[in-house]
């Protein structure tokens, strides 16, 4: 595998959700604190970070993954309704939840640009990983978005969008998605269940959202959030001591199912962190060192098999969400990970 310099991609549009009137505890300084931590450790981030200013992900890319009617809504007057749905800002009676539009300083519609920039970072990180062996994105990991709707703060599924575009371009034929976010990667599992070219692993809370969702949609169809990943690893409350053992076994099963992939995308959630502040993440609680051990396990597994890997900073909520990402990236870019920097 040829190796050049691994890069960190970040979208130019990084604003607080509160600017849209959305009261979700995602810290808007997560990326800046990660990069500041790298600089404090002596890493020259001026050479490592590429700012993405224009979306490269197009409507055509979305249509490889999402239903045409859903894509049409995103690019028309239906956008606001779809955003309210994806960010779970309205209840069954139409009342606002975690949403105060009177406090917004930006139009809600601007969120689509933010999402497309994040998806672009995912695609570019995948491209760089194919060249460098590894790359990182400060956005993306929108693993809850389904074919015809978004939820779980995810409007589109950037992971599958990026992989399908890379396949259409002839750059890859087979891929893994390794999802270590605290929540089950339900959208990714549903979108790829009949696709033999993509194998998915999700290690997540055994209880809670989205597994707590009803088994059927309002129209009576089965709810796709219950479709299993290729390798499904539910971790029950109190099983944290077995987390790394379960993950290692799962990675072996993933490789047996689809050996020799051209690329792996890691949905690199920090929300299993014991200091995470999202209530729906409370069923799984890992220390900072346990998360670092998790990331080392992923890194060494991919490197031993020469599988290029794109890491996406996915879930992570509250003022400490940056810490697990920074801990691992300091190790990578200070040389321990043998990445040129």
From TrEMBL:
Residues in Histone deacetylase domain copies: 27-322
InterPro entries: HDAC_classIV, HDACs, His_deacetylse_dom, His_deacetylse_dom_sf, Ureohydrolase_dom_sf
Stored Pfam families: Hist_deacetyl
Biological process per Gene Ontology, one example term: epigenetic regulation of gene expression
GO molecular function, one term: hydrolase activity
Keywords (A to Z) from UniProt: Hydrolase
Entry's family note: Belongs to the histone deacetylase family.
PANTHER family, per the entry: HISTONE DEACETYLASE 12, HISTONE DEACETYLASE HDAC1-RELATED
The name this protein goes by in its record: Histone deacetylase superfamily
